[in-house]
Amino acid sequence: MFMTPDPNSTFTTKFSDPTAIALQPLPDHQETRLKAFRSLQAGAVGFAVLWVIAGLSASYSLLTGNLGEELTRAQTKVDLEAQFISQIVAKEINTAEHLASALSHEERILSSTGEMDSNLHLDKVPVSERSAHLTTIPEVNGLNNMLTSIAQDLDLMAVFVLNTEGTCIATSYLPNGVNTLGCLGQNYTSRHYFQRAKEYGRGMQFAVGRAVKQPSLFFAAACYADNHVSGVVVTRLDARHLTENLRNLATITWVSDSAGMVISSSRPVQLFNFMRWENQKPPETWVLNNVYAQETLTDLPLTRNKHLPAEWNIWQLENQNIVLANVPIENRQIRVWHALPVDELFHNQKRYWAFALTVILLGLMLILFGERMIDFHQRRVAGLAALSRLNKSLEEASRKLFTIATTDHLTQLATRGYFFQRLNEEINRALNEQSSLALLELDIDNFKNINDSFGHPAGDAVIQHMAAICRECVRSNDIIGRIGGEEFAIGLPNCTKSAALEIANTLRRRCANEGLTYGSKTIRFTCSIGVTLLNGRDNIQDLLGVVDKALYAAKKAGRNRVHFHE
Ligand SMILES: Nc1nc2c(ncn2[C@@H]2O[C@H](COP(=O)(O)OP(=O)(O)OP(=O)(O)O)[C@@H](O)[C@H]2O)c(=O)[nH]1
């Protein structure tokens, strides 16, 4: 029989519609967007790598090429300047040399070294008095004046005349208030240039002067009388002159002689440094002492910068990078060296690199920022997609649970709990709309006997057959539930008493008449049905209590009956 339901459990159980809590699934175009985002993201990462590689290699080739060009320009500049300086040096040297040669033919000098020299009687005058003696001779004074004016005009340090003994008999360089030495009456026999002039007609020598200790170039030319050397004219060029005007420039200029020694330098501190050039041998010590007045040999601190490409031809002078040019002066063993510091170019290069790296880095950050943005959106869409998939499976699970909870597995009718929930809803609706509601309760008669006679599976088949009959006899909006083992209930909204009784009788007749073919057997069965109407009741317990009584009455009256109870 029908058990009165517990209001605290069954009736409060809610079987919610799973579609009500379902989220909208992810639209297809979101999946397409996700794919687009992923390829965009991969593209951004690829682009970032390309950007860095291309940026670095472009900067390297541009900046290295640019530095190479600037260094080539600097080299060209320094070459041209060296050429120009060497021409000026050559001109100064030639002037001094030609002057010596020209003066060796000069009439007054020839006479002073010829007949006049023999009248000077220098051999009778002590060496210390020769200078004073000579200044008393008017011809000598006249000659001195001439030589002084020539030396001044041509910017020479001194012009003087030596007799065949090497004694100075006339000079532009006279003792005066400041300088008490002068060179008049001094003897220059030992001088290399004097000996060369006497022997070959001409002589040239670099030396630090004895009386005036300045590095100088001496040019000597012999005077001839009757095919014999009658004296020697000497011009003395101050070696400082060769580079004097170049001192305040950024460039550095040296002039080296045949011994590889710096005899003039725009940086005076490097004077008499040794230019260790190719196979140049350093001068011997006595030469160092006598000619250059140096005690030890100092190398010019000039080395090749081996850390930079050889084609750039960069030298280092005291840790300063320079480009270097050297030009030999024609027919002389003198060279002009000219250097231009190029550290500024390297500093510029560093600045360009810093700029290029900043641009590369900023670009990279921008690309990576873009990539992060894409990643963010990608993750968002991916998250939505995952959520949507989760939602779908939850929805599926929820649907299954709903079905399990609301559907009887044997008959596919509503379960007891779900039937009561639905019946409750229909009661409320009927009360609200003041419409009628009929309730049928059905029970298969003597079902135990069927089980006992035909077996439990056959009993199941009878229950299923009974459910099918119920479904076929009611409308689509009526509710049917299996509320016990062989008990069923049917809620009929908007149904009158006569209509409810008619349905109940149809059901009863079909059960009694049809029987169920089970294998080779036919199982005959009947059912008893209780019928009632809502009739102003406002709760399910009362309604169920009444219909239960109606069913009980039907059973009691002999089964296979329909009984109505008000
Ligand atoms: N095969 C089958 N038997 C069931 C199922 N549920 C309940 N039963 C059986 O149904 C029988 C019900 O027997 P009773 O409640 O004594 O009632 P009855 O034999 O139908 O007699 P009346 O209701 O008085 O006509 C029991 O023997 C249960 O074991 C089911 O799902 N399948």
Automatic annotation (TrEMBL):
SMART domains: GGDEF. Residues 435-566 form the GGDEF domain. It comes from the Bacteria. Keywords: Membrane, Transmembrane, Transmembrane helix. CDD domains: GGDEF. One of its GO terms (molecular function) is diguanylate cyclase activity. It is an enzyme of class 2 (transferase). InterPro entries: Diguanylate_Cyclase, GGDEF_dom, Nucleotide_cyclase, Rev_trsase/Diguanyl_cyclase. PROSITE patterns: GGDEF. Its cofactor is Mg(2+). It catalyses: 2 GTP = 3',3'-c-di-GMP + 2 diphosphate. This is diguanylate cyclase. It comes from Teredinibacter turnerae (strain ATCC 39867 / T7901).
